């Protein structure tokens, strides 16, 4: 990674997207621009979305997960 690249923030919100969330995250992580912080807001998912997100967070240092305490919508 070129440390001269400015850091950018990528923000994603999700709700009950267990079937597509991994592909969405991988798509962002596989971009050529690598100096990112990836902020993902889980909007009180009731499926396995949050579990998948937390798994990515433990493996990827630039991902940070935020959890809404109830579903507020985008």
Structural write-up:
It is built from two helices and three strands; from the N terminus they run βαβαβ. It has a three-stranded parallel beta sheet with strand order 1-2-3, covered by helices on one side. The N and C termini lie far apart (32 Å). It has helices at residues 21-29, 49-59, and strands at residues 8-14, 36-42, 63-67. Helix 2 (49-59) links the parallel strand 2 and strand 3 (63-67). By secondary structure, the protein is an alpha/beta fold.
Structural class: alpha/beta
Q: Round the mean pLDDT to the nearest integer and report it.
A: 95
Major sheet: arrangement of strands: 1-2-3
Q: Note the total helix count.
A: 2
Number of DSSP E strands: 3
Segments where pLDDT lies below 50 for 5+ residues? none
Q: Cα-atom Rg, whole angstroms?
A: 13 Å
- Give the termini separation: 32 Å
- Main sheet? 3 strands, parallel
Beta content comes to: 25-35%
Summary of the model, kept short:
With 74 residues, the chain is α/β, with parallel strands linked by helices. It has 2 helices and 3 strands, in the order βαβαβ. It has helices at residues 21-29, 49-59; strands spanning 8-14, 36-42, 63-67.
Fold blueprint:
Layout: E1 8-14, H1 21-29, E2 36-42, H2 49-59, E3 63-67
Parallel strand pairs: 1-2, 2-3
């Amino acid at each position: 990674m070129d440390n001269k690249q400015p850091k950018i923030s990528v923000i994603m919100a999700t709700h009950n997207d267990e079937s597509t969330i991994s592909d969405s995250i991988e798509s962002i992580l596989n971009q050529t621009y690598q100096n990112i912080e990836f902020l993902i807001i889980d909007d009180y998912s009731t499926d396995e979305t949050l579990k998948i997100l937390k798994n990515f967070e433990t493996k990827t240092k630039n991902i940070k997960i935020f959890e809404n305490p109830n579903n507020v919508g985008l």
